[in-house]
Amino acid sequence: MEDELKRLKLRRLLELQRRLAKREPQEEPKEPSSEEVLGRYFYGRAWEVYNTAKAQFPKVMPQIERTLVEAVKAGRIRQRIDGESLYHFLRQLGLPIRLRTTIRFKDHGELKTLEQKIREKG
Length: 122
Known about the structure:
By secondary structure, the chain is mainly alpha-helical. The protein has helices spanning 2-22, 34-39, 46-56, 61-74, 83-92, 114-121, and strands at residues 104-107, 110-113.
């Protein structure tokens, strides 16, 4: 009786080992993407400045992106980055970024662009 019980236990153990061996190896945790890393530090209009710079300077921005990500991972960047800071940083590197600018007026509690304001008066 004991021998039979031992054989059953051994058979189940071998069966479990086979099942585990057949399972696909679990994926190792992947490293976060550049956007995820930068997303933890960008706020305000930083993404707008970043995407504009990326569109205007497609050859240079991947290098700058890698450098920013490395600086964040190494702990050299500890503070959050807003759009104005990123803009000035990129300007210092020699990238004259042209941002879309709009002038808005508050008219009777409603924000209106300069174009809308001129149309109303005309």
